[in-house]
Design brief:
Strand content: 5-15%
Strand order of the largest sheet: 2-1-3-4
Oligomer: single chain
Number of helices: 14
Helix content: 40-55%
Distance between the termini: 38 Å
Bound molecules: iron/sulfur cluster
Shape: globular
Radius of gyration: 20 Å
């Protein structure tokens, strides 16, 4: 029954701590992975369970001792959870250097949460040339050394297998994304659960659950809803998805860092699986935290919206996220040039009242249906 499958996604998405405890009770070690991209394949191949740490909707208190108020609340809530013991039992956290705010998280983590090891993953800005790929590979080797200190064992053959597991998961997530574009009966809240749960389940389990879901979906439904493309870093707030559903909006595609951006690029087949993983990072694109002077992401949003028949684009801006704010002006101009209506709403992990978002999206809906 599809509702049972959707319930399983929801349970995992809503209870990351329960998932952590389940794996720890099985004797597995947890390694937390901070946004936006970490070499999960390596962590998986060395026998750990990678678990996404994207923070939580909560009031910030202790994190304010370490961060000024104008840093994004995703990073602040990760530290808040760490200090409060929500990740207790985890062996380490891997934090990438993909934005200035993330760079400060690792340094603060070392002092604020001393029972969970901080493992930095330093990425190059210029990731595509050979020297950029070599730099990324050296960063991965550093992560491997740190994981070895925690009892992990690196084996290139195991990494080859993990690369395949992650490629299979990428493929199923791309199929889910395509299927959801023609299944308006799946709500925005359910769509969010499918993507969010991927951070808290092993990739093998999540792939299997997605396959079940796809098999149960059935024929495409007639779309009486308003197709939109959603773009941003994170869109998992239940109140936000409730508003999308209340407005009769159907997410036909996403450009969300915590959703489809994770699954667009596979690890290529190469003799050296670590080199292949570094090449994967070089091949990734269309994301605010992946430097590209040509900003192909902007056109990607326009092209995808057109291809999926979206009536408009909703940019969900995480407050104080510099990389997304830089891109917004270009996205706005490109949408205007393509005659594609665009709405901007701001969200924050500390937000309790979503009335301003509701009003903005109500106005946007009215404009699109006029
Ligand atoms: S939301 Fe923006 S500022 Fe915060 S960690 Fe992500 S990319 Fe960095």
């Amino acid at each position: 029954m599809i509702q049972d499958t959707i319930r399983k996604f929801h349970e995992a998405a809503a209870s990351p701590r329960a998932q952590m405890e389940k794996y720890m009770a099985e004797g597995k070690k947890i390694v937390l992975t901070a946004p936006v991209y970490t070499p999960e394949e390596i962590i998986h191949s060395m026998g750990f369970v990678p678990m996404g740490a994207w923070g939580a909707d909560m009031e910030l208190n202790r994190a304010k001792e370490y961060f000024p108020a104008f840093l994004c609340s995703i990073v602040q809530s990760i530290l808040e959870l760490g200090i409060r013991g929500a990740y207790k039992g985890a062996s380490a956290i891997v934090i990438p250097s993909l934005c200035d705010t993330l760079k400060t998280l690792g340094e603060n983590w070392k002092y604020a949460v001393d029972d969970i090891k901080f493992i930095p993953m330093t990425y190059p800005q210029n990731r595509k040339p050979d020297y950029g790929i070599a730099f990324t590979k050296a960063g991965y080797e550093r992560v491997i050394r740190d994981l070895e200190e925690l009892g992990g064992k690196f084996d290139p053959e195991a990494l080859k297998e993990s690369n395949k597991v992650y490629n299979a998961h990428n493929a199923v997530m791309r199929r889910v994304d395509e299927a959801l574009a023609v299944h308006p009966e799946i709500t925005a809240a359910e769509r969010s659960d499918i993507f969010r749960s991927a951070f808290f389940m092993t990739k093998e389990e999540h792939t299997a659950l997605c396959e079940e879901f796809l098999a149960e979906l059935g024929e495409a439904g007639a779309d009486a809803k308003l197709g939109i493309v959603v773009s941003g870093i994170l869109t998992d707030a239940p109140q936000l998805n409730e508003i999308f559903d209340d407005m009769g909006m159907h997410i036909v595609a996403d450009d969300v860092a915590a959703q489809s951006r994770q699954y667009r690029t596979d690890v290529p087949e190469m003799d050296d699986p670590l080199q292949a993983l570094a090449v994967k990072f070089a091949n990734m694109d269309n994301c605010s935290v992946l430097y590209n002077v040509k900003k192909p992401r902007v056109q990607w949003i326009v092209d995808t919206a057109k291809a999926r028949g979206a009536k408009g684009v909703v940019v969900v801006m995480t407050k104080f996220c510099d990389p997304e704010e830089f891109d917004y002006v270009m996205i706005k101009k490109a949408c205007e040039a393509a005659d594609l209506p665009l709405a901007l709403v701001e969200v924050d992990r500390q937000m309790v009242h979503f009335e301003q978002v509701r009003t903005n999206l109500e106005t946007f809906r009215d404009m699109l249906t006029m």
